[in-house]
Structures are given as C-alpha cells and as structure tokens.
Specification:
- The complex is a heterodimer of chains A (262) and B (266).
- Chain A has one domain: MetI-like (MetI-like fold, Orthogonal Bundle).
- In chain A, 76% of the residues lie in helices and 0% in strands.
- The two termini of chain A are 43 Å apart.
- The longest helix of chain B is centred in the N-terminal third of the chain and has 33 residues.
- Classes of the chains: A mainly alpha (262), B mainly alpha (266).
- Chains A and B meet through helix 1, helix 2, helix 4, helix 5 and helix 6 of A and helix 1, helix 3, helix 4, helix 5 and helix 6 of B.
Chain lengths: 262, 266
C-alpha cells in the first residue's frame, strides 16, 4: 500500500495541504469569527459599532490611508524616473546600480527605520510627520522601483521605434507608448507600497516619538491589551481595504510572480 | 548630457537611500553615546555588544534568531519541496485551490498573518513561545520554497523519472537519484530565502512570541528602541545585520546568474 501512495505523486502535496489549511486558512477564518463575536463568544456587531463610534479610531484609520496615499504617490514620483533610467540602455548600462536599488528591500525594516531616525538626529531635524513620510518613502521606494523596472525591461521596444518612425516627438512617445505599457508595473508597485504602508505598525512610533499613531499600531495595541475581538474586527477592516486595492491590480498577477524574488 | 543628468539622479537617490545605513555603519566605529559625535576610532561597541556589556538578552536574542531561522528554513525546505512535487503533478480545481492558499501568506500583510496566527494559537490553547514562533515562520516561509522549486520541476524532463521506474528503481530511489538532483538548486535558493525572511521578520514574531520573555533580534531592537532612542550598541548590530544580508544576497544573485548562464548554454 505504501507504494501506491508514493506512485501517485500528486498526493505528496497532502501534508502541505493540511498544513496550509491549519496555519493559513483556519487562522483567517478565526479573524472573521473573532471580529463578529463579542468577548462572550456570541455573534455580535459590537466591534464594528465600537469602531464607528470612536472618532479616534476612525480618524487614525483615515489618517493612515492618507499617509499611505502620500507615500505611494511620492514613491511613484521618485521611483518612476529611476526605473525608467535603470531600464534604458542608453542611460544606464550597469547591472550593479539595479542591484543597489533592490538591496535595501532585504534589510530589516526596523533597522532601516532606526537608520532614518539616526539620519534625522544627525542633521538635527525633528521627528514627526515629516520623518514619518520620509521614513515610509525610504522604506518602500525600492518596492516601487523594482516592478516598474521589470515591466519596462520586458517591454517591446519595437513599439517605441515604430512611434518614432511615424514621427512622434520624444515626449509623445513617452506619454503615449512607454507610460501606458508600463502601467502593470506601476499597479503592482502601488500594491507593494500601499499595502505595507497601510498595515505598518511599530515604525510609526519610532519615527514620531510616539506622537502619531497609525492604524496598524491601533490594531497591535488592542491585541496586546487583550481586546482580541475588537483587534480582529480592525484587522478585517484593513483586509477589506487591501482587498479593494488588490482588485485594481487583478490582471497583474503574472508580473508579480515573475518579479517576486530578486 | 542627458545621460549625465540621468546618472546624477540615480546616484542622488541612491545616496539618499543609503545615507542612513552608512551613517550608522560609520558611527558604529566610535564610542560616543550620542550618534553624530565622533570621538575617535574604536571597536569598543562591537566588543561590548558581544561580551554582553549592553545586556545579556542581546546574545540570547541573536541565538534565538539564528536557531529559529535554521529550523524554520530546514522544515520549510523539506515541506515545500515535497509539496512542490505534489502540486506539480496535480491538475484542475485541486491545484488551483492549493496554489491560491500558497499565495495567501505572500500577499497578506505581515500584521494580518501575525494576528491570524496569534488567534489560532490562543484558540487551540497553545502556550506561545519558541515553538509557536517556529511554526509561524514555517507557515510564511514555505510558500517561497514552493515558488523556488516549482520552476525547476517544470524544466525537468518528466520522462527521466518514468525511465528510472521502468528500469526497476523504486519510487523512493527515483526520487533520490532523479528528482532531487534536478530540483536541488531551487531547494537551496528556497532555503536561503526562507532563512533570510525568517531572520528579517518582525511583525509575525511579535504576535506569536508570547510573554515568556522570548526575544529575537527584531523584537529586541524594537523593545530597546521603545525604551529610549538608540542604544549605542544597536549601531554595530545594525551594521552586522546589513553586511550579513548583503553577503546572503550576493550569494543568491551569483547563484541565480550562474543558473541562468547554464540554462543559456543548454
């Protein structure tokens, strides 16, 4: 019988399927269950009512979305030109520069955040909202550059040549050919920046000396203080926001899979 | 001229990206308590970091980080590789479901993964500590192993395995002599990736480490930074982490480039 199991190799995925069910699917179901129950374990909407009735929580939520939007926008603004230059053979030939931009993605986010705090201390700038946005952009800029670079790299360059041959000005070529073709990279960059910024915690505390609270911090505080049901409800709200964002980049799975690892 | 501006822009951005890290690295070689004061070259912070001068907890945090990463990476490599072989041989709905589940930990924000696992562990009444952190790390590392092994399986000629069976090999021998050598590069990349991800993790660890005093490097840095700004010893620590990650990345990169070249030659 043992041989039967071995010879059907599709059943080799069985242990992992069980593992995924227990450690990935079940925990997510638990978030939903906790979110819709009160501390006595009865079905209730009390957690969501609490969220809506607390101006502080709602304000933090809106503020976090705002910070995430500003960060994402700044990352596109700074990152798109960088990705464009990196992928353009006549402007940059060095593979090392590309690697230098990707490298910071792999450094511990706390270390990077402490480094930002150190930089602000070093040049005697106060910590606060400015430091928060700088730190976020600093932390997540590589995640914007990389996917855009990847799409630009794989783009069919004959389309650009065709546009040039047909008499388009360089700026027209850029806005009418390059930018539309690089949109998949931009959407996956937006995902990779917006998602972690909206869900971040801890780093906001460090960058603002505890003066500014983000939504992630609110969730963490509630979980730490034993308010599991409320914390789960807030997590679910965050998941919904992220789910909505990911709808926009639905068709872009391929570029994300290809660009996932270095 | 255009190229000059383009290159200047790139290097300006890089300077900005690396400035904080470089400042920390440079000032890890001086003794001053406050960052930005240069009081002469010294490696005292490095020695006090490892002699436990800053606190005994730091060394055990380093030890925990490394052992957790090793166990998590080893288990996820094993689990992920076997799973990849299975998934590779699956078709239809089943394959879609397992691939979807496999993608969740990679797409989910860390904080959600952390909280969901926290709720799992409190629900089943498992005391949180070393074991729960290891389980959590296996959960978010294995998908990456599956993703690094799958391409190797897709490139493999399926007939070799069948041929081995026809020639009288048992399925286990065929696995050991045919499949594993083919997917080994993917397994090694997956292992390194899992190891790096585990060392790097903060959000999942902080929710699953419990309150028995278990600390990894990330949570130690966090707790320390919360207590009051930058402890001087964090400078050499961050520098060491940075250099380690740098080395690991270079290894991964050289490996994948060599693999790519090999593919071209075939």
């Amino acid at each position: 019988m043992k041989f039967n199991i071995f010879s059907r190799r599709s059943s080799w995925a069985l242990p992992y399927a069980l593992f995924l069910g227990f450690f990935v699917a079940l925990p997510l179901v638990l978030i939903v269950i906790y979110a819709f129950t009160n501390s006595a374990g009865e079905f209730s909407m009390v957690n969501f009512r609490k969220f809506l009735l607390q101006p502080e929580a709602v304000n933090t939520f809106i503020y976090s979305i705002g910070i995430a939007l500003v960060t994402t926008f700044l990352c596109i603004l700074l990152g798109y030109p960088a990705a464009y230059i990196l992928s353009n053979k006549s402007l940059n030939r060095s593979q090392t520069t590309v690697l230098l931009f990707i490298l910071p993605m792999w450094i511990n986010i706390l270390v990077r955040t402490l480094a930002t705090v150190a930089l602000f201390d070093f040049v005697h700038l106060p910590l606060g909202e400015g430091a928060l946005i700088f730190g976020m952009v600093y932390n997540f800029l590589p995640f914007m550059i990389y996917p855009i670079y990847n799409t630009l790299q794989k783009m069919d360059h004959s389309l650009i040549e065709a546009a040039e041959d047909l008499g388009a000005k360089p700026s027209t070529v850029f806005w009418k050919v390059t930018v539309p073709l690089s949109m998949p990279g931009v959407t996956s960059g937006i995902m990779m920046v917006f998602m972690p910024t909206i869900s971040t915690f801890a780093i906001a505390e460090l960058l603002t000396m505890n003066n500014i609270k983000l939504f992630g911090t609110t969730i963490q505080e509630n979980i730490n203080n034993g308010m599991w049901n409320y914390g789960a409800a807030l997590s679910l709200i965050m998941l919904v926001i992220i789910g909505i964002t990911s709808l926009f980049s639905d068709g872009d799975e391929q570029s994300q899979n290809e660009g996932g690892i270095i | 001229m255009k190229k000059f501006f383009a290159q200047s822009y790139l290097w300006l951005l890089l300077a900005l990206l690396y400035a904080p890290i470089i400042i920390i690295g440079v000032f890890s070689f001086t003794e001053a308590k406050v960052l930005g004061n240069w009081t002469g070259f010294s490696t005292k912070l490095y020695t006090s970091l490892f002699s436990g001068g800053v606190s005994g907890g730091l060394l055990s945090a380093v030890e925990n980080t490394l052992t957790i990463a090793l166990i998590a990476a080893a288990v996820s490599t094993l689990l992920g590789s076997i799973a990849a072989i299975g998934i590779h041989n699956m078709r239809g709905r089943k394959r879609q479901v397992i691939t979807f589940l496999n993608n969740i930990p990679m797409l989910n924000p860390d904080i959600i993964t952390g909280i969901s696992l926290f709720l799992l562990f409190v629900s089943i009444g498992l005391t949180q500590g070393y074991i729960t952190v290891v389980l959590a790390h296996i959960a978010f590392c294995t998908p990456y192993v599956v993703l690094s092994v799958m391409p190797r399986l897709q490139q493999m000629n399926p007939n070799i395995y069948e041929a081995a069976l026809d020639l009288g090999a048992t399925p286990f021998q065929a696995l050991r002599k045919v499949i594993i050598p083919e997917i080994r590069p993917g397994m090694i990349s997956g292992f390194i990736l899992a190891f790096t991800l585990s060392i790097d993790d903060f959000a999942v660890t902080i929710f699953t480490k419990g309150n028995q005093g278990l600390e990894t490097l990330s949570t130690f840095i966090y707790a320390d930074a919360r207590k009051g700004g930058l402890t001087p010893e964090l400078r050499p620590l961050s520098t060491i982490i940075f250099v380690t990650v740098l080395l690991l990345l270079i290894i991964i990169n050289v490996r994948s480039r060599r693999a790519a070249r090999k593919m071209e030659n075939i």
